[in-house]
Design brief:
about 160 residues; about 45% helix
Amino acid sequence: MELISVIVILFITLVMAIYMGFFIYGFVSAGPYVGVAKRDLDSVLVELNDGTGKTLLDLGSGDGKIVFAAAKRGYGATGIEINPVLYMYSKLKKLLIHASKATFIIDNIWTAPLDSYDIVTCYLFPEAREKVRKRFIAEAKSGAVLVLFKNGGGFETIKK
């Protein structure tokens, strides 16, 4: 029984070390995981209307909140997440709630293709949001919408 306890403690320590490593990486690259406020998410989804037949990409999807909410409204929703702990959490939640229109990919937000999505969302540091804005303008398809969630609340939408 003691061996099992040691293995469990080592496993939890490893998972936490991986999570913290990617959390720190988030501060350096684009922003650590911070969940979007429910009121902002609800406002965006109301503004964007019905998602039937539309696709949404969430850059840095974290716990999948945006992806699950969009999938529930009919979007084919994809989340890109580099943190393997948050990625696995989202995949597990997808199985538990049977969210068939939600997809999660472990990838870097700076290399994920934007050109096949109707809507792209992100919740990043201001400098990173500006980089995403430039990338969106260069790579997104015509008519696509970029939603930039802002630190402290609120959002900005940009249509290409």
